[in-house]
Amino acid sequence: xxxxxxxxxxxxxxxxxxxxxxxxxxxxxxxxxxxxxxxxxxxxxxxxxxxxxxxxxxxxxxxxxxxxxxxxxxxxxxxxxxxxxxxxxxxxxxxxxxxxxxxxxxxxxxxxxxxxxxxxxxxxxxxxxxxxxxxxxxxxxxxxxxxxxxxxxxxxxxxxxxxxxxxxxxxxxxxxxxxxxxxxxxxxxxxxxxxxxxxxxxxxxxxxxxxxxxxxxxxxxxxxxxxxxxxxxxxxxxxxxxxxxxxxxxxxxxxxxxxxxxxxxxxxxxxxxxxxxxxxxxxxxxxxxxxxxxxxxxxxxxxxxxxxxxxxxxxxxxxxxxxxxxxxxxxxxxxxxxxxxxxxxxxxxxxxxxxxxxxxx
Length: 361
Prior knowledge:
five-stranded parallel β-sheet; Rossmann fold; alpha/beta; 11 helices; 18% strand; seven-stranded parallel β-sheet; 2 domains
């Protein structure tokens, strides 16, 4: 691969061993590591001097830590050429999990869990490579054809809606719908904007699937719950669907729904390297609720949600997807819109009102 076409990345971690592990992983994935930093100040200096396409960032570093780096990158006085998308590479513990979720809220592009002792490196290497390439492509403006680093959102497009994506004119039952929300890259930040604007009771209940490593979703649920009228909980299994509660799939488990409307967790094999897989949750909800299903697909890489969306439409349900104008990565919503399955393609700022109208509060 010609050097000019390879993503150029800075690695920041206070551990020399971890810098070597991350560097080796990225190089194995065909990514060029142009610099390595042992603290936040050095990371910012390398970004200023080398202008990389992306950076991997540890959160716990001496001096200026990872959160300080993220806040510095958001400084409006910083030249745009020095602002790079960041993939957080973090160990998991309850405290680190909360900090990693805070980092996503501060603008980090995505999150990869550091490999635990004894774990094979293959999954870490592939996950890191995929997310760093996507981050670099967002800076270059080319993830799945279009992506945005999310540092400033455009107003909703005045162009005609895409095929199958007319503005919503709710059909069928307008109350009591089961709401399923699916998201991936950029999702924690989108959810932080969306969920606080929803009412304390919504439809027949809400299921949420956000692609995150195992252990981190509990912190995300807690952060969203503190800001929202809805009660937001990480699912533990056997919860009865409740209009006042949104259940978040735990990282590392598929979230299923039984005919009796109870949540069930599954440790079945990942599908397309994803566990949880949104398609499974969506298909279960469609099987139970039929036309009383409302699917909402937010920012994210890939096509998870597309098979589920086909089942929702087959059973007469409704589908809203986030517009390119507000997505960090216009991948999951784009797949559904281009398949002609979306009833509306809406900017994130427009989605809360549409969800309330469609689901019924």
